[in-house]
Specification:
single chain; 221 residues; alpha+beta; three-stranded antiparallel β-sheet; 5 strands; 14% strand; elongated; transmembrane; membrane; transmembrane helix
């Protein structure tokens, strides 16, 4: 019969495993998405994508992952006691549920990888007790330290965003200022033409309001 201390121990082990798995998985996905938003501020990209993935994966692992794990742990004690590899394998099988649900092989692979990681850490925490478990806790904290180092390193080594110029402001504004009868020039200046015997002048001007902030004016005469 389980005592209160046994229940507390299980909850503590599952929660630690959940946090580690969700964080590690999020950091890996953050590294995969690195560079998607351009070459600048890669450190912030890494942390940003990791946070986005964590907000989705964390609740899934916390609810679905732990319910499955608790059910498998109960089944292990009653039907396949001592068979740790079957316990891990069943985690992987249930981890593929997202792929079956969305009919996407990629989701299945990601879910299986996260489930495998969860099961391995869970078994390590179960098998090692006392001082040895503290070493496992220390080991599972290493990815968090590495992610902080990666964040700082990537942010420091990323190229700086070049200043936003008046010419770029004009090009961006001109791209949205098309007219049926013509298009304003995408650089400071003017163009002339004739429409229905009328002489038409389209002019583009720009002035700096403050640092990297410009007022672009289009005039049609």
């Amino acid at each position: 019969m389980k005592t209160e201390s046994d229940f507390t121990e299980i909850v503590k082990r599952k929660l630690w495993t959940t946090v580690f798995t969700a964080l590690f998985f999020s950091f890996v996905m953050g590294a995969i998405f690195l560079g998607v938003d351009g070459p600048y501020h890669k450190g912030n990209q890494f942390i940003g994508w990791s946070y986005v993935v964590f907000t989705f994966s964390g609740p899934v692992i916390l609810v679905y992952g732990n319910l499955v794990s608790l059910a498998l742990e109960h089944a292990q004690k009653n039907w396949f006691k001592g068979n740790q590899w079957l316990y891990i394998l069943l985690h992987v099988v249930f981890g593929s549920a997202s792929g079956l649900l969305f009919q996407q092989a990629g989701f299945a692979i990601i879910g299986m990888a996260a489930a495998l990681l969860y099961a391995l850490i869970d078994r390590l925490l179960l098998l090692y007790k006392g001082p040895k478990r503290k070493k496992v806790y220390l080991f599972t904290s290493i990815p968090i330290l590495f992610s902080l180092i990666a964040w700082i390193t990537l942010e420091y080594t990323s190229p700086k965003i070049p200043p936003f110029t008046k010419e770029e402001a004009v090009k961006i504004a001109a791209s949205d200022e098309g007219r049926v009868l013509g298009t304003f020039p995408d650089k400071i200046g003017k163009v002339e033409g004739t429409i229905n015997d009328y002489r038409v002048i389209m002019a583009t001007e720009a002035s700096e309001l403050e640092k990297e902030k410009y007022l672009v004016v289009f005039t049609e005469t």
